[in-house]
Amino acid sequence: MQKDLTAGPITKTMLAFAGPMIAGNLLQQFYNIADSFVVGQFVGPDALAAVGSAYTLMTFLTSILIGLCMGSGAIFSFYFGKNEPAKMKSRVQAAFLLIGGISVFINILAFLFLDGILRLLQVPEELFAMMRSYVFLILFGIFFIFLYNFFAFLLRALGNSVAPLWFLGSTVVLNVGLDVLFVVGFRWGIEGAAVATVLSQMISGIGIAAYTFIKEPSLRFGKNFFRCEKGAAPEILRFSLASSAQQSVMNFGVLMVQGLVNSFGPQVMAAFAAAVKIDSFAYMPAQEFANAYSLFISQNFGAGKEERIRRGTKSAFGISLSYCAVISVLVFILAKFLMMIFISPENREIIQIGVGYLRVEGAFYCGIGLLFLLYGYFRGINRPVMSLVLTVISLGTRVALAYLLAPLPQIGVWGIWWAVPIGWALADITGLAVMGGFAKRRTTAGA
Question: Which pTM does this prediction carry?
Fold first, then answer.
């Protein structure tokens, strides 16, 4: 099912397209929360700390692939908007070969250097063996993560945001069920959570690939699969590497912060693991709405509809910032209750640390919501390098301030927390200034 985003009511079209994407990621975040809940309640705070730290590592590794898929999705959407199916198919084949090969390479490197990576993360000795066992198993799912995201971004580029939702929803339900079975029923501990995740990722990746080839026969890989159109591979690399760099730089910064958090010990690690899950769940709808907005921009950019881009941008900013303002108030007020979803009430110090994090981040969700929109805008108008620049500003500020302030006894972990919204603000100011310049030049050129 394809959907043309270049026609119809703007706000209604964007919301209808974004709805399944948001629902899908809410389901994904629900799984992450359920996973942490099962591990935290039935294995213990140390296991929660290990899973939380491992989640940050895996997010970094998979962000490289997700960024590549996201960048290629913008190209697919561009050629779909231009109504050039032959060029689109050649880009799909080139992207699959390139990104698939990169996923295998990353997987091999991660297995080879696993111990060294965990040492760099300053994982406490009492958690090292547990975390290593969990990560070793989770790494087997990397290729399936590539499969799911590649075909999900391909289907979304065609305007089909519903099918990825169904596959994600089904596998999330399976994942939670297997979590309960393996961790609570079979008492496999943290390894059971890892096995449940990998099995679910395998079903999701293979399933959505099969669905795509059944529903979109024109995109099936033929006998010329390994012979791409001249210029297709360089174009894919130009877009995808920029998006991948943006995603990986962002998550590498988070990984560096995780290493700093780990240096404060298991209690801070456990608090951070739980609070980040809540944080991600809270602002995720703004992130997915921005991804939908980006594809809206990309299709209309390909079709040359500048006025529709302008009106869509105004509508998107109003929707996203309104949502972020409301969710900021809710997280700030409910921070303690939200922490107790993961942490037993008797662990008061862990809860208190997490509440501090949430009340700093929660007050400034409009900053990250705006930044997500700026990322989407620059990807949509074929300026993915600008998204990377904004990420470097945001994460560079965050990491630098965190490492500067956290060692000071009178500041400690609060320096890590406050570095985040300051980084968002600097990137937002820069992005808005550049966005205004781009829009002005395009308006002048069109006049």
Answer: 0.70
